[in-house]
Design a protein that fits this description.
The complex is a heterotetramer, with 2 copies of chain A (about 270 residues) and 2 copies of chain C (about 250 residues). Chain A is built from 11 helices and 12 strands. Chain A is an alpha/beta fold and about 270 residues long. In chain C, strands 2-1-3-8-10-11-12 form a 7-stranded mixed β-sheet, sandwiched between helices. Chain C has a 3-stranded mixed β-sheet with strand order 5-4-9, with no helix packed on it. A two-stranded antiparallel sheet of chain C has the order 6-7. The chains are: A alpha/beta (about 270), C alpha/beta (about 250). Chains C, D: This is Glutaconate CoA-transferase subunit B.
Amino acid sequence: MPGDLRAMASCVRPGMRIALPVDYAGVSMAMTRPLIENGAGDLHLVCVPTGGLQVDQLIGAGLVAMVETSAVSLGEAGGAPRFNQAVKDGTIRLRDATCPAIHAGLMAAQKGSPFLSIRGLIGSDLLRHRDDWRVIDNPFGAGGDPVVLIPAITPDIAIFHAPLADRFGNVWIGRRRELAAMAYASALTLVTVERIVRRNLLSDETTAAGTLPALYVAEIAEAPRGAWPYGLWGEYATDTAEIMRYASAARSAEGFAGYMAARAGVQA
Amino acid sequence: MPGDLRAMASCVRPGMRIALPVDYAGVSMAMTRPLIENGAGDLHLVCVPTGGLQVDQLIGAGLVAMVETSAVSLGEAGGAPRFNQAVKDGTIRLRDATCPAIHAGLMAAQKGSPFLSIRGLIGSDLLRHRDDWRVIDNPFGAGGDPVVLIPAITPDIAIFHAPLADRFGNVWIGRRRELAAMAYASALTLVTVERIVRRNLLSDETTAAGTLPALYVAEIAEAPRGAWPYGLWGEYATDTAEIMRYASAARSAEGFAGYMAARAGVQA
Amino acid sequence: MILAPLPREVLIWTIARLLEGVRHVAVGAASPMPAAGSMLRRALDESRTELRLSILGSVANNFFTNGSTELFDCAGQGRLDAFFLGGGQIDGEANVNLVGVGGYPQSRVRWPGSFGSAYLYFTVPRVILFREEHTPRVMVEKVDFISAPGTSPAGVHRPGGPAALLTSKALFRFDRDRPGFTLESLHPGCGLADLLAATGFAFQHDDDPPVTPAPDGATLALLRGRVLDELEETYPAFAADWRRDLAAAQPAA
Amino acid sequence: MILAPLPREVLIWTIARLLEGVRHVAVGAASPMPAAGSMLRRALDESRTELRLSILGSVANNFFTNGSTELFDCAGQGRLDAFFLGGGQIDGEANVNLVGVGGYPQSRVRWPGSFGSAYLYFTVPRVILFREEHTPRVMVEKVDFISAPGTSPAGVHRPGGPAALLTSKALFRFDRDRPGFTLESLHPGCGLADLLAATGFAFQHDDDPPVTPAPDGATLALLRGRVLDELEETYPAFAADWRRDLAAAQPAA
């Protein structure tokens, strides 16, 4: 495992709120093992807006105290086994949400606003269990128009993987703008990339349009195939068979441990 | 004047709320004259977030009932003469705002939310004069934390100019994402472009990142140098001398009329 | 001789019928059947209008450029006409549960979670509940957890909601005023007694309900040709399975 | 022989001093002097730290990629340390008026409008009020219209606010608690009596205020070399004017 990934992981300290992207948007799987070796636990994960393999592995490794998410799943490979077990055992706390509510919370943080209003949610048990959300009567309505307020979600750290960065610290995220939203909202952003290029991504308007400026990026490290076994848009496809193997192995705590030990060489 | 510009202008009907971009973000100056010839008045202009030459000319032509803006100015060429005169004469209504409040209103519309919260503004005369804004006590605070709510701004039509579009109706806006915000918030979006290309802008991830999808675009027409005398990023610079000539001519109603008549051939 | 419609082809054709008049439909990443129905609708409509189909997580059928928030923003703007929702449990008032059963938060069985349901169910005019498994454990009298409610009290801003429920056994439409489901048709091979036994909630029905229409020959040809080809790009496993079923059903030469 | 500092060079140097310790500063599109001060600060700091400078509307000094909202979002996130505000009127409580005088909305004299002031004044920790014209019609006792207030009551969320006021005559710092301005220094050539006569609001001052420091030789060389070159890209007219002044001040050979 490259030392820079280990150094990046050491930014994560116990109890921090960590934002992680959805499966198809650039999950830094390369950071999963460094995070586990770093060992900082009691983490509060914010899935943007859903979680998968990485979330399941961090839970399996015992690092997670709370998951704020719209879903955790392995997609075609089925339910997330360590997440499901932890829910059953009551060893993690849950903030069940709906996708646009997570986006709304991040947008509030991006704008420095205390909250965003959002339609929907009224009458759901999601709302009933979220004591950190509020319902007010729409002040612009004629009365009797309840609307939910979502407070700003301000992660300590956002972690994701992208196709490329330049040596000035700018990261190309293309149309996966939720990665920018995560970075705007978070105090620190750690990024792994397939490769670092010499040219300045901002000096060409075409690449600039899909670039997250260095202003928002604390650390970058190269990690080729760093989303594996997830895919990365324009680069490589998801290795579904590997996710299936994980899903099957991780049904038990022992199976999970065995899988992680066996894959140590592959992921390092 | 090409017939397609005239046809686009005919989408504008009296009393509509029209969103127009800031000077440097792609003003469709090519649409100004068709809008004037179309003649639909009583317009409510929303400047995103400030206005300039186009706004001044539409006011000078007597089409504008209300301006919602953070500022109207000709930049280096000074104050906007027809706007300033209209304010003095009381012939237009004003909704003076601050830039991020306009962005917040458009973002609320983008999200289908009734309002966004915004910091700042407390104690300003802007707030005092905006009876369409509300102040509430932040429901997430401990009390005594006033915060302003900005209602959704939902223009009937957004009009702007961009470097290129493809024949599928996708428009390349690069990093000028306020143009996307305008389109998301508006019921209809009319776009002029320097040129229309055959390739699909969405089929390449690099260009897709800066593309507004056809879903949001009602009509597109080619209008080379369509931002003139404003510049267009990556294409041509602002013709400051021309804006100066306008600023000087338009100090009087007669001078404005003379300028517009003299430029009819140039702009057509 | 045209091979008789497979059960999945009846479902896909039913989905296409439910999408009549729709201009923009979105389907989830793991929703091959709704995607196929949408592709069929698109093919049927293309001479008159362009049906936009957004498949979440797909690259080929993704014309969004503002990240994963754009689908929801689109729905909030009223630019999304139809969407599909599943559910670990669905009840007679069209409440859906995507979270789990046996307590909350410490659920005995946990499902992935609510995804966008609690928003899209409110904002998309035509939500089609689609769940193939039609058993008393899925079609329950009352869900254990409401990820998204089927109806809302007067005053709640709700331009959207459930239009229909489609399962492997039958098609229901939803009456928002009553509220409740009404049986529209039984799929070929399913009887009313069978359906009543498999359904945990009460619903209105005729004594002799109609049979769900099967696609005609031209539609079947479209399905097995162009739609299957298009589908293969995003759902290769499902497409291969469908082709296998077709091959297996082929009468011996 | 080094040419003595021009008045504008004293101002630019003062701006650079006011930006000490700043990591990210933004300046408006038509603000050559603040831009020059920021460029000088950047040049002075570059061996130790990287000062980020955002010039609105510029392409070369624009590392934003999310449209014109990004500056404000940045400020809301606490990522913007310093900003410059002007004002058609500025009063003794640091209220600024960018809207007009003689009534509202039907103003006798209308200025462009408040731009981002009503937000950035609240969110940017170090706002520098910069207006060259120092006359009783600009420096008023009470502004006609508050585009953005200088201070806020306790409880109002306000991490930002005015730090200093710089004019063609003097430099003031602002005391948020009192609230009010205190004279820091008079620019070369300006006397206290002159300043008092030109200022419509009361301010604290020493009997014998210090003179605003001029840049030393090395700083002047940096200003007239690298900074002037950098500035030329975005503010060609201002740069040409500056060069003309330098040429005119050159002692005859």
